[in-house]
Request: fold
Amino acid sequence: MLLSPPTFVEPVSVCSRRIRLNGQGKGATVEVIGGGGRAVDKWKADWPDQLFDLDAAVTLVAGETLSAKQTNLPNLSPFSSVGTVVQAAGPSTPLFGLPVVACSERVLAKGLAPGATGTVRNIPSGAVLGSSTGGTVEVVTLSRHLVASDRIVLDATPCGGAPGTQSAEPPIELLRTVGPNDRRLVTVDVDQSLLACQRLLAVHKGQPGTTFWLERGDGQQITFGLDAPDSNLRIDPALKEGETIAWWVEGERPCEVLPSERHKATATVGPPPAPLITTDPCPGSPVIHCSGLWPSATVHIRVDGVDSLEFEAAAAGQDVDLGGLALIAGQRIVAVQRLCNDWSAASPPVVVAPPWDLEPMIVEPLVDCAPIVVLQGVSPGALVIVRSQQRKGELGRKTADGTAVVVDVAPFLQHWRYDRGERHRMSPRAAEGARWSSGRHPTGAGGPGLHRYPHGGCGARCVRRDCRRHRLRPPCWRHDRH
Reply:
């Protein structure tokens, strides 16, 4: 069966020393290529959402498009329908993921440019408490536990550069307990029911800096450090039918708190619930979005009743690269998922239909330090890609499930001053056989322009409206920020 190409989860820059991909099956060989088909690296996958370390000899080029494929013999995928474009090295807009908690020796760094080093410093002394390098969101392990009176900041350094802008100073909170006279930690929630062959636990209401304890049915105890309120925790081997697990949370040693209440649940055998296809495909759609997935389940996309594409669920919702599928108007698409040998019911069908005739618009103003770009007038099912001309690469992407879409970007938006000589308009250019057109956009914080994506499907075309503005027919277009 045709496999879905792995999906790039985070942007990549010339500083990146790892790449995060999802959708690959356990045991699959994952290969990434760059411009002109040059080999970048190859790995063996053991998880559907995984960070792959780049070989030390690998160099990435700003503006280069990376594509990924997987091979799990006898099945294989094509390379990515829409690859990711590598960013140049550039500044970050770092900030702490909240809450920052006393007694913790871990903090979450956000807003980092891909591959930048996030460094936590003590404000009074300037001493470095810890640093981490890799993705746009990093867990920084500190050299000591925090106390409520600490004052800390976060800065970020691109490869070969100097430390840039510092974050704001975060408040440091106390751990939440059951009550003023009950020093037990508040318990966490685990998504249930539990099913046999499940390899991931979804945990909610966690407190950063605490430790999640899991006791398997054979008595083995496993610990996970919690860094955010919501976490997906990998368990290997998978849950067995009838296995009872217990879980609780504990604080770090300096904290005067007691472990939370223990909770138990038993894994049952049976099919997972039916998933959902939450975007509207059109002829030529490169990507759809599925929700209601059971993480670590095997998922099949059926076209007119025929199993046509397979991927492994990495989360409850994810984009799915349609790979070599050439959709035709009128086809009916459903998704099904399997744990062990139990298949779910099929999702409600979606019908491949022509795209809506809408004019996509960027919601302005674009705000300095904003972590998102908002667009409206989007054809449902459009793959929206936000790019930066200064960084020469992709900042983020989102498959639209309605006529408006919010795209998370990394690093966060930054104001580019005219006196730096940055260009704030684009002229027509050609690439990959498709014409990208834009007009001047009268904004002072950086001129946004809308461009057709060179995929060329979905009836994408550009119609001249006047000498300054162009209308693009979605969904095969992208947004560049300059």
